[in-house]
Write a structure and sequence with these properties.
The chain has 596 residues and is α/β, with parallel strands linked by helices. It has helices at 2-23, 31-64, 72-119, 122-127, 130-172, 175-222, 224-229, 233-286, 291-308, 311-333, 393-400, 423-428, 444-449, 457-466, 470-475, 493-507, 523-537, 572-578, 581-595; strands spanning 354-364, 367-377, 382-387, 408-413, 416-417, 430-433, 511-515, 541-546, 557-562, 565-570. Helix 2 (31-64) packs parallel to helix 5, helix 5 (130-172) runs antiparallel to helix 9 (291-308) and helix 14 (457-466) crosses helix 16 (493-507). The longest helix has 54 residues, at 233-286.
Amino acid sequence: MSHVIADARVHKDRRDLHNLRNMLPFLWEYRGRALFALGCLVLAKLANVGIPMILKQIVDQLEQGEKTLLVLPLFLLLAYGLLRLSSSLFNELRDAVFARVRYRAMRRLSNRVLSHLHDLSLRFHLQRKTGAISRDLERGTRSVSSILNYMVFSILPMLVEFSLVAVVLLTQYDIIFTLVTFGTVAVYIGFTLAITEWRMEYRHAMNRLDSKANSLAFDSLINYETVKYFGNEPLELRRYDETLQNWEENAVKSQTSMSLLNFGQGAIIAIGVTFIMIFAADGVVDGSMTIGDLVLVNAFMLQLFIPLGFLGIVYRQIKYSLADMDLIFKLLEREPEITDRDDASSLVLKVGAVRFEQVDFAYQPERQILHQVDFSVQPGEKVAVVGHSGAGKSTLSRLLFRFYDVTAGRVLVDGQDVREVTRRSLREVIGIVPQDSVLFNESILYNLSYGRPQATREEIKAAARMAHIAEFIESLPEGYDTVVGERGLKLSGGEKQRIAIARAILKRPRILVFDEATSSLDSKTEQSIQETLKEVARDHTTLVIAHRLSTVVDADRILVMDRGRIRERGTHRELLAQGGLYGQMWQLQQEERDSI
């Protein structure tokens, strides 16, 4: 068991060093500033160590008599004031100069993480918990600032000051003062690190439970309507409170152990200072030391323990920050499932023909979704794919957009395998109206312009008119500046869908995919939207994925899917004449419509 724990610690230490090395590139941009800040740090500490030495000289001069009182002590007093001023000046200069380094590193890491999250596959984003990711991202980027802050403002200054004090004590005083001073420091550091390490498990548990509670809260708010539909507010609050209760228990244990740590630190300092005073007073009595020397060694001792008083906090925060940083760098080390090949070229768009060639696909190896799917959509042609839920229809759009790669076969655009072209160039030519149109918590204008951010306001309004949403927008008090709420909560499903259609129109893609694009619309709006879609789809390569068969009767070709296979092909009339699966679905939907 001890071997397992030791191996785990070694692995953790290696991870910490690995993460610290990974942090260095984010500092490289302002390396000159960082070096200048370190120079200021050393100068500040030289001034700091010089203060007790000047104080010793003042005390000794005053002790010698009054003959030099009006000249030399005045000079020393001025030097004393100058050193204090210099210490403050260089400390503040260090802070000001290093601020740019620290915050630029945070900014670059935040951008890098967000960019990487966008690069990760749809599979990752379907499995992730938004609340936990949000909290981990916040803590992880803040950890860079924390580590830099503690290293430059706590650890390095402490080491520089220790070194300077050691030189003074070793060269000017008996070895016993060095041994007592640094012996006390060693015991203090050892005790602090041991207790802090023991307390870490409580903090790790607090972090884990904090992320879990945040995730539960986010999920319940994102699914606000579902919670209300089932009246499950007590259930959500109970789950949230149970997690916070566990967090509370660990927080109390963390604070209690903190009191033990503080008392132990105070006891070690008191014992160390007492021994220093005994040896210094003995030196004054036997004449080997002056009162100024006693003041100096006592000042050094107390001065060293001022930063050491924060050592437990600093060590703990560095450990927490390293743990938080590890989450971010593990995320950055996660390889994107879908990437551009090294030799990938931009898609050369000719006519926009789409072909699925003997495509097999599985989300998990043990559960295959598509089997030998083979069809093409020619320029200007409208091909519809229909079938029951779970037949694999929407998977086709995800493969075309290259959210996933096929298990076998190929997906081609103008004869080019989508795996051999850059994702950006592929996605630029495809416009998708998904079944669930999620909007940003921004204005309607922003959501519309998302299809083509550089579009003019008039072009945006024209797209809105084509999607039969302009009249509704203009009737709103704030018009196009109306904020739609989280995920478009302030709009109805049909209104969101029409905004999504307008957004796709604005993009001006060569290939259009409508994935249940009118599923949230009433019959009257659906008819008008169908006319719009027919107009928009003209001269485009159009793939329509639908459950409602009435929306695809005008398709040039209809593919009927069942359990991941294409079972039937043909026009609406041809498929009805066959009396197969399509005919059964049509009959069933007609009966459902008549019964309403």
